[in-house]
Design a protein that fits this description.
Blueprint lengths: L10 H17 L5 H27 L3 H9 L10 H33 L2 E2 L13 E6 L6 E8 L9 E9 H6 L2 H15 L3 H14 L4 H26 L2 H14 L22 H13 L8
Parallel strand pairs: 2-4
Antiparallel strand pairs: 1-2, 3-4
């Protein structure tokens, strides 16, 4: 069933598999920007493969098409399957576009709903080159999170530019000391470093759109864990005080069980669908950076 030149049609799968191996290799290290961008590429290729397969199955009769693909997977890569790949690419592009649009809409809705107020920039933290809004909002939940928006300046039409947003709740500000607040804000700056927040929030949005896909959920959880660790490292580099970030993590983690409703604390990297189990790992790594022994597990 393999015609001459047919192996070239397997290129998307070869690239996807190679990217997956690269993600696994990068995931064994400290993570960082490379891991995040490889994960985004793996997700995009997976979306292409998954949507193409779905289009093929639906167009070819459902169950019978699944049985045919299980028996002869190369059917999906035959020249006659080119229209399915085109439709799959359009479908994957649509999902990714919807994810990006929702990401931007949610960010704007958050600003309208929370009505945040300006917060004085910590004097010991450097200001990023990209315009960044640091603001506080009224909430009884100790919370901090950040995201990236694309905005157009008011007045005459101008180029679209990035605007970074860091939001900190009043409860968190009241819970932490000055050094702990700086450590939290530095951690959020770590998320914004090198545009990494756009990958993180985009993947989380797409994971919510594709809840039925376990591969997407696994990618989102793994990316979240590595991104939190990377943001912690950036925070330590900016402040030089890993103990302050440890103390902030411990205080927020201690408040989480008593909070009403489902837990959704961005600073802990936790929510209803992401367990905060890696908080202990973050604390252990920070203590190692400070030269202190990690606390013993009960």
């Amino acid at each position: 069933m393999f015609a001459a030149g047919l192996p070239l049609l397997y290129l998307p799968v070869v690239v996807w598999a190679a990217t997956g191996l690269a993600v696994l290799a990068a995931g064994r290290g400290p993570g960082g920007t490379l891991y995040l961008r490889l994960s985004a590429a793996f997700f995009a290729l997976w979306a292409l493969l998954a949507t193409t397969t779905l289009v093929y199955v639906v167009a070819r009769g459902g169950g019978s098409a699944i049985a045919a693909l299980l028996a002869h997977p190369d059917l999906l890569f035959a020249p006659a399957a080119a229209p399915f790949w085109a439709a799959g690419a359009l479908g994957a592009g649509l999902v990714l576009t919807i994810g990006f649009i929702l990401n931007q809409l949610v960010g704007r809705a958050i600003l309208r709903t929370l009505a945040p107020r300006p917060l004085v920039w910590p004097r010991r933290l450097p200001r990023p080159a990209t315009p960044t809004r640091l603001e506080r909002f009224a909430s009884e939940r100790p919370e901090a999170f950040s995201f990236t928006l694309l905005v157009r300046p008011r007045g005459p039409a101008g180029p679209i530019r990035r605007q970074e947003v860091i939001l900190v709740s009043d409860a968190l500000l009241g819970l932490l000391t000055t050094e702990e607040r700086e450590a939290v804000i530095a951690h959020e700056l770590g998320h914004l470093h090198a545009l990494d927040s756009r990958y993180l929030t985009f993947l989380r949005t797409c994971a919510r759109l594709l809840r039925w896909d376990p591969v997407v959920a696994l990618i989102a959880r793994s990316v979240t864990r590595h991104e939190e660790l990377r943001a912690d490292r950036v925070a330590v580099e900016l402040t030089g005080r890993p103990r302050a970030l440890v103390s902030a993590l411990q205080k927020v983690a201690g408040c989480a069980p008593a909070l009403p409703g489902p837990t959704a604390l961005g600073f802990l990297g936790a929510s209803r669908w992401r367990r905060p189990a890696h908080t202990e790992d973050r604390i252990r790594r920070l203590l190692e950076r400070s030269g202190d022994p990690a606390p013993e597990r009960p």
